Amino acid sequence: MKKSGLVINKDSNMLDILVIRESACGGKCESCAGCSGEDKPLIINVKDDGRFNKGDRVELNMDSSTVLKYSAIVYIIPIIAFIAGVGCATIILGKYNIKNSEFLSLLFGLLFLAISIFILRGVDKKVSKNTNNILTIKKIN
Q1: How many CB atoms lie within 10 A of CB 123?
Q2: Per residue in 2-60, pLDDT tens?
Q3: Which single residue of 8, 84, 90, 119 has CA 20 to 30 Å from 14?
Q4: Which of 71, 66, 49, 67 is nearest to 58 (CA)?
Q5: Proportion of the chain in helix, strand, coil states, percent, rounded to 5
Q6: Dihedral over alpha carbons 53, 54, 58, 61 (to 10 degrees)
């Protein structure tokens, strides 16, 4: 996955890079109800290795399989946690003939979902500190 961007800020060891996110259809179809037809800006913070200055045009590159892997983790793990929470609660509460077991199962599912999101936030913080192994940046002339 390649994106071009512009270095808009350079602090001591961090760069702020402005990247224009395009919609899946390219953002050129105003007749589509799925998007507004406008590109959305995104600011990415990355570690500076001293090669870039404010105003430089850069190209960000990330392996597509890495993008898909992280996307799958972010979306699939919470769904699995929710289903596991509902399933476990349904089985356990069903054995004891507890009233409102469906509602309690839903609450357990939401609890498992919340726990998975907190775990993913911790993983995200760990991964974001090590972006140099995931994201490569090169200057565009």
Answers
A1: 14
A2: 888 999 999 878 889 999 876 666 555 655 655 555 567 888 888 888 888 899 999 98
A3: 119
A4: 49
A5: 45, 25, 30
A6: 90
